[in-house]
Amino acid sequence: MTSSTFSAAQSIGAAVEATPPRKGGRLRLNHPATPYLMLAPYVVLLCAFVLGPAVFGIWVSLHDWDFLLPNKPFIGLQNYADLIDPNSITFEPFWKGMRATAIFVVASVPFLVLIPLGIALLLNRTFPARSFFRAMIFAPFVLGIAVIGVLFRYLLDSQFGLINYLLGLVGIPAIGWTQTQPWAWVGLVGMTVWWTLGFNTVIYLAGLQGIPRDHYEAASLDGAGAWGKFAYVTVPGLRNVLVFIVTTTVLASANMFGQSYLITNGGPGDSTKTAIMVMTQEGLRSFKMGSATAMSYILAVFLIIISAINFMALREREAKK
Amino acid sequence: MTVTEPSNEELARPAEAPSPARRRRAYRQDRNGPFFWVAIVTLSLIFVIPLVWMILTSFRTVEDSRRIPMTLIPDELTLRAYQLMFADEQNPVFLWALNSLLAATGHVLLVLITASMAAYALARLEFRGKNALFGIIVITLFVPGFIFLMPNYLIMDQLGWLDTLIALIVPGAAGAFGVFFLRQFFLAIPKELEESARIDGANTWQIFTRIMLPNSKPALVTLALIAFLANWNDFIWPIFVLFSPERLTLPAGLSTLQAAYNIDYPVVMAGATFAAVPVLILFMFVQRYVIEGVATSGLKG
Prior knowledge:
The complex is a heterodimer of chains A (about 325) and B (about 300). By secondary structure, chain A is an all-alpha fold. Chain A is built from 13 helices and no strands. In chain A, helix 5 (about 130-155) packs antiparallel against helix 7, helix 7 runs antiparallel to helix 10 (about 240-255) and helix 7 (about 185-210) packs antiparallel against helix 11. By secondary structure, chain B is mainly alpha-helical. In chain B, helix 6 (about 95-125) packs across helix 10 (about 175-185). The longest helix of chain B has about 35 residues, at about 265-300.
């Protein structure tokens, strides 16, 4: 690795020395090939694993692309047509998955936007061990879904789990967190909030620290109380942060996969089987890549539209103000 | 218990911003009443208990893990779960850890090398198509990752990379985050540094390796950590592209361990603890880099 970068260095270096400064015009500071050579490794990756696959995926979605069969006949938009045809076999699982994803997004986003804001306001005060608390609430996020998923399948076990035991101590009868609705959603949303709220909190905190202190002082002089300062200084000061958080949280929740995969396995019934679970099962377990890629593009279009709406709605309010 | 130790450390460090000390102290006295501390302690318990419970359960006997009433402290500390797990040839956790380490390290090196060169060209060099290329890179930041799952799976198959660690190292390095993040950092470095090197006769590559990279250590460390953690924790990609038990990474392996031991929770928690503790220890030392990296990239986004 080192030797190859070193020789690349030499050849780029040699190329640069060979160029005379251009007469008259601007001094040329590098050989014309240098930028392209420096970009080349990344651009190769970008083309091979991002741009290429994005286009290749569309191509696949236009075929009856069964990974295990030699023939992959071109069928035009049939995969897409099937997804909006209630009589096709892909229609029901796909829209059930979309529905599950929608439920999860609607149920989790408000908590993931509001609770971290509250915690960020709490942690934005000066107190000992502040950065320790910040690290502590961020720690679950660092662990990743596999650890958190198996941990919560245990904690949410209706018989042996800590959560039902603690609820039992205050007289609440055992809840079937993985067997009954709406409790399955409550459990999945709750553990997701616990897992990821540190991420949003940290971004809010950075946003809060970017609000100039004298704005609060000016508000005090104008007679604003705690609520007034929050409403007229904090919230406007966080507007851009809020746009970012709402948008990224909606996208993250719409990508929900591991929680259902590890904790409820899509159940009870198919009720928590999210769109991503449905499409990976179709494409990467049953190897029906054509319909699976078509599903992925439909979900992507939904998400792009929702992000655009979020973005405009939250910006709009700023314009009116 | 764990809470008080670092808090002393924090206390020992003099005030974070000593400048308007008097105002700050008044602010502190005004605001942090008992209600504040109740909230902080409750929050700490909510965050600490599940992880403590995971670790404690891994040292319990099966009977103890199923006994009602539950007790915080295990009746008897046993290594049974760890012995079972380490002896299980179907679930080779040490190999999984090694695979995770190799994949994440390889991924980080690839990201650092490719992203830093591309970011430097985008931040400082003039070339045709620069704006178009940067535009494309920014657009890819907004494309949801799941659309690449199926086509990249087929590409891995064509390249013969299925069930290998290369599948975890290479495709992810095409993500635009590293380039975007380092470009922002490079743009903030004063140009005078490079100009004086240029006058001393340094060429572009020398300026990049001897001026830019050494001056970007915090950004490179932050990117390395974020890329490492993201790769280490990745779940959806490895569970589909890896199949052989000895090729899995820790997250993918944990899911098979869970399936194998089901409600023998001490073993499942031993697996979770085995996967979690190294990351938590790493995080303790580097949390500032990770958190500030996340916060600044969030604010710029």
